[in-house]
Design brief:
Elements: E1 4-10, E2 16-19, E3 35-40, E4 43-48, E5 57-60, H1 63-73, H2 76-84, E6 89-92, H3 97-115, H4 129-142, H5 173-176, E7 185-192, E8 211-218, E9 221-229, E10 245-249, E11 254-258, E12 260-262, E13 265-271, E14 281-285, H6 300-317, H7 331-337
Antiparallel strand pairs: 1-2, 1-6, 2-5, 3-4, 4-5, 7-8, 8-9, 9-13, 10-11, 10-14, 12-13
Amino acid sequence: MTTGTVQIAHTPDGIWIITPGDAPSVLDDAAGIDVAVLEVVGGHLSWSVLAEHPVPVAELDDVASAQNWVWAVFGEEVALAVASGSGRDVTVSPARPRMADSARRLAYAHWAARWWPTSTIDAVPPLDEGLLNGEMATLVAECDLLVDGDDAHVPTGTAPADRPGRADDYALAAGTATATLPSTLVLARGITGSDWRRYPPGLVDASERAVSWEVVRTAGDTTVRVSVVAAPGLSEPVPEHLRPRALVGTASGTVDVALQLSGDVWFGESAAPQGSESGVSVDVHLPGFGVNGHADGGGPEVRERVRALVRRRLRRAAETVPDDAPDAPLLAEIAAAASDSDF
């Protein structure tokens, strides 16, 4: 059951916030990759998938409409406190705990559709989009007080095709695409990951080893080459407006490198920016999509915690878990855990 204590506050711009403490919400400057958000009647609910407590943050921009479900998710005491306009700490006691659990599962399903770290390198299998959307529709019906039917349909970006790959074959895939000729001098090279918030799902492998780069000197010219392992199952043709790019930077300047899909790897090269001989940073992104630049909410530490969460959930999905357990695996997670692919 969703229990605990929440703080109720009123912002100067007229929004009511119900929060269990220092938890993420849609009002944060930049969305973290660990935040699951559910659009509900009169506002939004949000949870951190990495936090163990099940109490959500509620942001209410239409209190009159939200009162139709606040009592069900947070309890009558919270609903009365919001109605009276009093900002204080209140105990959570949902009137409909099953609905509160279903709301959290629905938010998690939305999150999984966007942030599931599918990777051939890290051996994280993809989720079946049909199973995921089907379970969302079921959960929407269970949360009829909170959401309408439109929330059963979630755009998930580029849908991967059914083409499993062996993880070991991808560990050095980017490096093979940038094989250096004997007459070429390698000045610097490196392997890194990418900020998942910078492009839609289904384009780039989620591993921290998916991006490789090298700065080479050939015939008097200095060039930077970037290779990025593609998401499992991605195949041509990819529309031009969905092709990622690589922003390669140094302390002295940057270059924007166009990437083309070649087999299972995105590859591109360009004249290197000044100072690249000492190394570069690489930011894989889709122009006009997501946040600008790197921030704590999408850093390597958070991404690794998300991977650890997903691995735990896949292990649990392979076990027998009661269907009515609040943290029961999604059907798509069960199918992924039981997959006979090379993941």
